[in-house]
């Protein structure tokens, strides 16, 4: 047995990719995607045929990427989702543009237009999660959207204050970024892994229902220590590593930090990590928009 088959018996696996060929082949439980992953998939030619179809059959004169109106980008995004979702067992997370992460009203409007387009494409809203950075505005918007039956994946989770707000607002799922925490906190034990362990303990102790999807890994050992989560989301790089590794490993039993340590230290850096993550998301989004603009003018 390879390591991938071992892991998928323990936990639901989400693929952090938009690679149509990969997703067709392996039927993952769930999918998380973002503009940079869609961009990579466009550039590796896995969408050649369906992109040609899309650009020939859609109105190129509509606005490319506004916040509150249905755009060419929105149609393309849901078209991609429509082609992916048939190969996914559970849900797909669709990311809002990072530029509206601090704007409550625009998050609400953008999420509603995503669900409207999903309905137009015949995608059941129960298969969709709106992926929103866990700013205060994002958490508040996700709570409001839940009242309309729209569930969310709150991403860029770096501290327990974010977690508590998500739990209290009964957010469907949160995505703590393991690797980005371990990158910045150097210690004898893996700080990113222990942060997620603290989240899990807090959830269990107070009987919260929000699911935990561990994300942003730096090594296989982090993945193997987080199989108690509801989901993990992995990049194609780590999928290949899991697929190619036989079970002849030792799992390190990491020591759990005290929750107070994580609160005191992570609270000092979490806002910077959140802002940096949003900035990177926005760069990725802009790169995709530039490619779409090029395609519009060259098809």
Automatic annotation (TrEMBL):
One of its GO terms (biological process) is pentose-phosphate shunt. Keywords: Schiff base. Gene3D superfamilies: Aldolase class I. Coiled coil: none annotated. PANTHER family: TRANSALDOLASE. This is Transaldolase. It comes from Carsonella ruddii.
